[in-house]
Every structure is written in structure tokens, then in C-alpha cells.
Design a protein that fits this description.
This protein has 192 residues and is mainly beta. The protein has two helices and 17 strands.
Length: 192
């Protein structure tokens, strides 16, 4: 089997005279270490360097800050803050306030989640806490106990004039005068 390589020397080390294209055999063996001065070949798959991983045997108490992506399969107690995205693995147990760009939950989270993008609760996820996000996805089988605020309304709700604090509380005079004042009339009749 032959592979076309552009702008590189053949595997035997002998340069090709006057040609930029070289056919070299591809061996199934892993490549030997790179000679000094040549950069290591880049893999075609995404680099794992942008993704941080906390395995299942890791326990952290305190605040965690990261910039890219974090995959947690261990235990965290405290705060998680980032501009990146958080993935809560199946074995993860998190008791924390989470403020990130996005969160995908496969494990258990006890605490509030506030993200700028999206929250995804997968089938075996368990979340006890409030969610504030631009979008929310909950798969069947996920457990979510809390309040959610999803998206932003196109028009802000109007407040009543003066911010009347008695709006949610019944007026005590109205409560006592139910039935068109019959209670008051019966009290007078009984008093005489």
C-alpha cells in the first residue's frame, strides 16, 4: 500500500530529485519517535488538550475554575465556574453551584445551575436544584426537582403601578365581609 506525501522526504531518508511528490510505503507499525527539529504529526481527531478530565477516584472540595471543557466523573463539593462547558459523567456526584457556558448531566447534581447556553439532562441524570439557561433538554428517565427559567422573553412583564405589596395578600376587610356583609349583620343580630 502506498501513500502520497507532499513536501516530505521518503521514509528511507533519501531525498527525491526534483519532485515534491513522493510515494512511500505505509507500514502498520507505530511511528518511531520524531527526530529533533521535526514537529510531531497532528492527529486527525480533536486534541484532548482542550478537555480536562477528573476521573471517578477524584474528590474535590472547594471552587473549580477552568477555561475550556471539563468532564467530571468524580465528586465535587463547592462551586464550578467557567466560560467553557461541563460534562457530568455517570459516576459523578456533584454538590455545587454551577455557572458555565453549558452543562450536560449524566450523573447526579445537587445545586443550582446557571448557564449562558444550554443544559442537557440525559436519561439517568438526577438534578435537585434550579436551572437558569437559554435552552433546556430533558430526556425521558431523567429526574429534575427544582425550578427552571429557560430563555428570555421578547417583552418584559409589566409591573403593576406602585408595586402594591398587598396584591398577593387578601385584604382582611374583604375576607371578613364575604357574603355581602351578612357576617356583620348576624353579629349585630346575635349581640342584641
Amino acid at each position: 500500500m502506498f501513500q502520497k506525501v507532499i513536501g516530505q522526504k521518503p521514509a528511507t531518508g533519501a531525498p527525491a530529485a526534483g519532485s515534491d511528490k513522493i510515494d512511500t510505503p505505509v507500514s502498520p507499525q507505530p511511528p518511531a519517535s520524531q527526530p529533533a527539529g521535526q514537529p510531531a504529526p497532528r492527529p486527525s481527531s480533536p486534541s484532548p488538550s482542550g478537555r480536562n478530565v477528573l476521573s471517578s477516584d477524584v474528590e474535590i472540595k472547594g471552587s473549580i475554575k477552568f477555561s475550556n471543557d471539563l468532564v467530571v466523573d468524580g465528586k465535587i463539593e463547592g462551586n464550578v465556574i467557567s466560560d467553557g462547558s461541563l460534562t457530568v459523567g455517570e459516576n459523578a456526584r456533584i454538590r455545587a453551584e454551577i455557572k458555565t457556558r453549558s452543562v450536560v448531566v449524566y450523573g447526579k447534581v445537587h445545586g443550582n445551575i446557571e448557564v449562558t447556553d444550554k443544559v442537557e439532562l440525559k436519561a439517568n441524570a438526577e438534578l435537585v436544584g434550579d436551572i437558569k439557561a437559554a435552552s433546556l433538554s430533558v430526556e425521558p428517565g431523567a429526574i429534575f426537582v427544582g425550578k427552571s427559567t429557560v430563555g428570555t422573553p421578547s417583552v418584559k412583564p409589566q409591573q403593576t403601578s406602585g408595586g402594591n405589596p398587598q396584591k398577593n395578600q387578601p385584604n382582611r376587610n374583604q375576607k371578613n365581609n364575604k357574603g355581602g356583609g351578612q357576617q356583620g349583620g348576624s353579629k349585630l343580630a346575635n349581640a342584641s
